[in-house]
Automatic annotation (TrEMBL):
UniProt name for this protein: AraC family transcriptional regulator
Organism: Shinella granuli
GO MF annotations in UniProt: DNA-binding transcription factor activity; sequence-specific DNA binding
Gene3D superfamilies referenced in this protein's UniProt entry, alphabetically: Homeodomain-like, Regulatory factor, effector binding domain
PROSITE patterns, alphabetized: HTH_ARAC_FAMILY_1, HTH_ARAC_FAMILY_2
Taxonomic classification: Bacteria, Pseudomonadati, Pseudomonadota, Alphaproteobacteria, Hyphomicrobiales
Length: 290
């Protein structure tokens, strides 16, 4: 069997395991079952998974569950105890300890004081100082993408599929940049119908064979908000960008998709150090003034 055939087989196994993890995060996930799903011995599978994703299976599951828990803390009124139990922590003390180690604050304080609070109306003056918005002319970009339908909090599944596919096909390049493209407003569209794409920058010379699809981002002026902190916090940043910054900017929106550019990797830095650029397309300044 050739090297390409071996990695093609691994690709299918990676996709099965990634799908299983994301679909069973709220259940009692048995990590010992994952090698069975991959059709490899535990001895080999854990090494293959870590070689591709640069983290262990257990670290992936813990990171994804804490990400979803952070989303619940920001977006819901569930009690901390209920959120802990939902994401696999029947012991509130252990959830508090693990969450605080990852996010820098215990869950209750994160809900009250997390970075999402800085964008709320009563903190408008503070947020204008704390959060940079620059206007930047961005060139058009060619992307390779995996489509995702459902909660934007779940787009990690598409990124796992994208990374595994690129790696197994020997297409991944260190200069590829991670991009998230989000087509729908989560305040207007039902969660299960939200459309998005997990992407990397890639030239036309890189083949886009299923499940990969080709997308492009139009170049032009963009308002770029640099956000530091957990991905779960960014919904509030979007509302601040539209509701506070845009009316005061004198600029008009251009009818192209917004996107997020991820400047570092959630596998490599803690959530409070994640850097994301939220990019809002703008009409050229001359047209906005006309």
């Amino acid at each position: 069997m050739s090297e390409s055939e071996i990695w093609a087989a691994y690709e299918k196994r990676l996709l099965r395991v990634s799908a299983y993890i994301h679909e069973h995060l709220e259940e009692d996930l048995d990590l010992d079952r994952l090698p069975e799903i991959a059709c490899l011995s535990a001895h080999h599978w854990h090494r293959v998974y870590r070689a591709v994703h640069n983290e262990t299976l257990a670290a992936t599951v813990r990171r994804l569950r804490l990400h979803r828990a952070a989303g619940d803390l920001v977006r819901s009124d569930r009690t901390v105890r209920d959120i802990a139990a939902r994401w696999g922590y029947p012991n509130l003390q252990s959830f508090t300890r693990v969450f605080a180690a990852a996010y820098g604050l215990p869950p209750a304080r994160y809900r009250r004081e997390g970075s999402h609070r800085a964008y709320e109306p009563e903190n408008a003056k503070e947020s204008s100082r704390m959060f940079d918005v620059t206007i930047r002319t961005i060139p058009g970009q060619s992307l390779l993408a995996i489509a995702h339908t459902g909660s934007y909090m779940g787009i990690g599944k598409a990124f796992e599929t994208l990374h595994g596919t690129l790696f197994s096909r020997n297409l991944f390049r260190p200069d590829m940049r991670m991009i998230g493209v989000f087509l729908d407003d989560p305040d207007l569209v039902a969660e299960e119908e939200l459309r998005s794409f997990a992407c990397v920058t890639a030239g036309e010379d890189v083949p886009a064979e299923a499940p990969l699809v080709r997308r492009t981002l139009a170049g032009g002026d963009h308002a770029v908000l640099r956000h530091q902190g957990p991905y779960a916090d960014m919904g509030v940043a979007y509302r601040w960008l539209y509701g506070t910054w845009l009316p005061a900017s004198g600029r008009s929106i251009r009818d192209e998709v917004m996107f997020e550019a991820y400047l570092n990797n959630p596998r490599e830095v803690p959530p409070n150090e994640l850097l994301t650029e939220i990019c809002l397309p703008l009409q050229p300044a001359a047209e906005a003034a006309a």
